[in-house]
Amino acid sequence: MDFQRAGVRLQVLLGHLSRPSAPAIVASPVSWPASPASCHPQQFQYTLDNNVLSLEQRKFYEENGFLVIKNLVSDDDIQRFREEFERICRKEVKPPGIFLMKDVAIAKQDCTLNEKVITKIQDFQEDEELFRYCTLPQILKYVECFTGPNIMAMHTMLINKPSDSGKKTSRHPLHQDLHYFPFRPSDRIVCAWTAMEHVDRNNGCLVVLPGTHKGTLKPHDYPSWEGGINKMYHGIQGYKQDNNRVHLVMEKGDTVFFHPLLIHGSGRNKTQGFRKAISCHYASSDCHYIKVNGTSQENIGNEVKELAQKRYGIQSNIDFKDVWMFRSRLVKGERLNL
Ligand SMILES: CC(C)CC(=O)SCCNC(=O)CCNC(=O)[C@H](O)C(C)(C)COP(=O)(O)OP(=O)(O)OC[C@H]1O[C@@H](n2cnc3c(N)ncnc32)[C@H](O)[C@@H]1OP(=O)(O)O
Ligand SMILES: O=C(O)CCC(=O)C(=O)O
């Protein structure tokens, strides 16, 4: 076992437990003329009562399972995230716990790591510069509408999506994020996904199936794609082509918030440029862990445990939930169950 590495991780974990939460968010006035939804006595399931979302926005999320907020993250912040991403690719900074992932089409090639070959970085919770994204007050203000006041950052990614190699491996199959999560309730989980540049169908923007958050969690596994599929990119099994797909065309700084049961994915990048996005999955710290043995999530649970055992050299009974406890960080309020 790599005791030194395990020790560093333990210190990091203890650091999180003793670290004060991010500064409290000062309530800011709503910028929409529509009246706040909380004035209207209605049954809402997916959003909470506060004065941030207008009634129109709230109804939209309830009905569709996603909500795009224009121009939420500044150009300056995005530039800083981009520069840090490039430093990480060049290995000038090595935050503990981070995954650098090459596309499966070039995974076995011995190429120098740079922006062109890294398809995404994952688990940047120990990189203070990138993790700033997860604590941005303007993001948390919206997150709180879905999670409530005690907010954990559970999962972090910067997806670079370089130009497709021709094998269509830059695609992300249609899936529901809840498949990856051993915690509930699903309605208190939300993803924030911010475009770092203009995204549309050409460079592989997000594709969503509106309203699918009202359904159940479907069985997922690797799709049998001819050109190969990236590690852990599970897709919904036997899913029929759906005409109801919506391509989310977004500008730099636009942010979409979406429910973990919303079926979504992304197409290949047909351009010569990138399709960068930064994202964080948040959950209320009131959520509780569940066992996934005997459920449709058992396959991903086993895969994640295997990877953790290989990576951290831990041979014993590491649980799926331990991996989540290990990497999640409080960003606001109190750490309760998660
Ligand atoms: C809600 C949210 C979670 C939705 C999602 O994002 S779903 C996708 C989640 N994806 C992940 O969590 C990926 C996690 N990352 C990883 O598993 C790792 O980074 C790996 C992709 C396995 C790379 O491992 P690492 O040890 O860093 O690198 P190595 O270069 O030594 O490769 C180890 C073996 O893995 C292979 N590999 C590397 N990249 C990929 C790839 N993109 N797809 C499939 N296989 C891959 C690589 O060829 C090598 O294989 P062997 O030589 O052992 O046969
Ligand atoms: O950014 C993408 O291409 C896909 C991201 C995604 O599916 C996710 O965050 O669950």
Automatic annotation (TrEMBL):
GO terms for molecular function: ferrous iron binding; L-ascorbic acid binding; phytanoyl-CoA dioxygenase activity. Pathway: Lipid metabolism; fatty acid metabolism. It catalyses: octanoyl-CoA + 2-oxoglutarate + O2 = 2-hydroxyoctanoyl-CoA + succinate + CO2; phytanoyl-CoA + 2-oxoglutarate + O2 = 2-hydroxyphytanoyl-CoA + succinate + CO2; 3-methylhexadecanoyl-CoA + 2-oxoglutarate + O2 = 2-hydroxy-3-methylhexadecanoyl-CoA + succinate + CO2; tetradecanoyl-CoA + 2-oxoglutarate + O2 = 2-hydroxytetradecanoyl-CoA + succinate + CO2. It is found in: Peroxisome. Its cofactor is L-ascorbate; Fe cation; ATP. InterPro entries: PhyH, Phytyl_CoA_dOase-like. It is an enzyme of class 1 (oxidoreductase). Keywords: Dioxygenase, Iron, Metal-binding, Oxidoreductase, Peroxisome, Vitamin C. The keyword Calcium does not apply. Its main location: other. One of its GO terms (cellular component) is peroxisome. Its EC number is 1.14.11.18. One of its GO terms (biological process) is fatty acid alpha-oxidation. Belongs to the PhyH family. This is Phytanoyl-CoA dioxygenase, peroxisomal. The lineage of its organism: Eukaryota, Metazoa, Chordata, Craniata, Vertebrata. The gene is Phyh.
